[in-house]
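Morning!

This is the sequence you dropped in the shared folder:
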Amino acid sequence: MNSEEEFYDAVTGFDSDNSSGDFSEANHKVAEMLDLDPHQSDRTGKHNGETEIQENGIKRHRTSLPAPMFSRNDFSVWSILKKCIGLELSKITMPIVFNEPLSFLQRITEYMEHIYLINKACSHADPLERMQAVAAFAVSAVASQWERTGKPFNPLLGETYELTREDLGFRFISEQVSHHPPISAFYSEGLNKDFIFHGSIYPKLKFWGKSIEAEPRGTITLELLKHNEAYTWTNPTCCVHNVIIGKLWLEQYGTVEIVNHSTGDKCVLNFKPCGLFGKELHRVEGHIQDKNRKKLCVIYGKWTECLWCTDPTTYETYKKNEKRGGEQKKTKPSEDVIKSENDEADDMPEVQDTVQFIPGSKLLWRINCRPPNSSQMYNFTSFAVSLNELEKGMEAILAPTDCRLRPDIRNMENGNMDVASKEKERLEEKQRAARKERAKDEVEWHTRWFHQGTNPYTGTSDWLYSGGYFDRNFSDCPDIY
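The structure's back. Tokens below.
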């Protein structure tokens, strides 16, 4: 057995003495869902207080998970990680208690939570305002990771996830296109044909003794079709601290460059590392410049809270006055600016003050409020809570490879931890056996919905959508579950 297989054969068992057997079968059942026929969507009805269709046909998704998360207090990650310092964590199988009941493909879908920012970018006539909206979208895409210390399930090779949200105006499809290395490809489009959002993600995970670092690989591309513009960027590095002892906490750091390939404009965002005494924790600062490198505006804020922009002269003047030692009062934005449907999230880090508002700044984005019981639901956002929802009749139209049909994730969501752990082991063993069989027969794996190619804007290697998923011909999909 080679070293790669040994990593995947690591202990994945879950101590049955610590299982969540107290949850009754009645509590495990997802609330009865709704008929998917769009012609019936003008009815009004509520199901167990979670899912309803309004008179205008917009469906409300569930607001909580079927079962609360399992306590991790009795489990030590150190017993596994101490042998893995400096290794890639994608090659290490962790006990299921350290997971959250979502696949990494579903975690990628959380980029779409703040899709209104893409819609805003599409509506602006001014290219500077479009870049501001795109920059806010790029920051918002990582905001859901705040306090999310659970590990998403590694997707199986060939696994897919689709999401259509008519209320938000988009549809989304992703596929696990490679297992070694793990690469996830995604494609989303506006239902009004106004944008295309696509990319491939290869997070390189490493354990450094006290922390786990996820270095992003892969290009993210946003095309605004009406304006004939394309923007590309790469996400910042994510790091989870105190994995051995103490309270887990997370930070993002690194430089993100968003390039408008049509105008030559560029947005440079610096996700600041925590620094001494946590002064810079979660802070983001940067600027937008034109093709001649002239600064057009300054952007500042926190990826866990909000993002503002102001003109460079105002920003520099403010910073100079601050440096002169004049103990300036922290000016707060007006009440009508603060009060929006996107209030700051609960459980803000104890360490830091809120973002220091510079007079004259424009609000670009504010994080959505999380559900009041979020801490009992893996710190999910409202959007994340809905991602694994399996509605009545949905199995008939989903691809058989869709994440929602994974028995290990479904059982974990329902609180059946012992069953979830056994199913996870079974699926991993099935995947190993299939890989050995292909190697024996000298058969190559063929992706179904994406193909390897070249990003048309950056010239770098990328995974591109082949099309056809929503025609729903799933006859040749692999049996992975």
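Headline: Residues 25 and 414 are 9 Å apart (CA to CA).

More detail when I'm at my desk.
O.
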